[in-house]
Amino acid sequence: SSAALFLVSRLFVWPYYRQTALATFIVVILATVLFMWWKRVKEKEALHTLDDYFSHNELVTALSFEDDKDPLVQSLLTKALENVEKAFADFKARNKNLLRPKALIGLFGTAVVLAILYMFPAASQIEAVEVEKEKAVIEDVKKEIAKLEKKAETKEVKEQLKELQDTLKKTETAEEALREVVKKQKELALKEQQLKDKQTASNEGASDDKGLSKEEVEQLK
User: Fold this and answer.
1) Radius of gyration in angstroms for the set of CA atoms belonging to the chain, rounded to a whole number
2) Which residues contact 195 (CB under 8 A, 6 or more apart)?
3) Structure letter (DSSP) for residue 60
């Protein structure tokens, strides 16, 4: 499944395809483990398998009777106990087929394919990684703007930063995001300079204006 995702991601730009493939791999592994646990050998099945190594199936026959005081049952149990060591030894010596060549070859082949696909990404995959980086930069910028908005002391600055955040939501590249940030910085710097000029003119009495308002004074702090 992970190999299939890697192959599909080579056909078009799919951001976070690596994370998706890893998550899919983990889910498949967990599902496989749960399936193996659910399909584990039960006690009844194990007894029947062991019973196959008794010459006359004495084990299951003896255990199938509820009345273990019955002479016939006692006789079967005695015979089963006499043969249990040999039966168990034969059971342990059976061909277990723990290693499944086809499954191992399949796993190895999948691992090789995944390694090759990862080491030699397609142009679409390289572009997808770049898109991921762009998105990460944009998210970092958004977080920094959000912090600045919380620290802003005036309503106008808060509104300007809120407007910038709304603009950043529409940006698709880090270059666009940084361009918007620089633009807003220039606007705020120009506003600050205008307030300083107004304050200077007011102090020197060179303007007919009443001077800075309380909010404008706060913006200069």
Assistant:
1) 38
2) 212, 216, 219, 220
3) H
Give the global pTM.
0.56
What is the domain partition of the chain in residue ranges?
2-119, 130-219
Q: Along the 221 residues of the chain, how does pLDDT read in single tens digits?
A: 667 777 777 777 778 888 888 888 888 888 888 988 887 778 788 778 788 878 777 777 777 766 667 777 777 777 777 777 887 787 777 777 666 777 778 778 888 888 887 888 888 888 888 888 888 888 888 888 888 878 777 777 788 888 888 888 888 777 888 888 888 888 778 777 776 777 676 666 644 455 555 555 555 45
| Dihedral sign, Cα of residue 190, residue 195, residue 201, residue 203 | negative
Report the b/e string of 195-212 with b at 16+ CB within 10 A.
beebbeeeeeeeeeeeeb
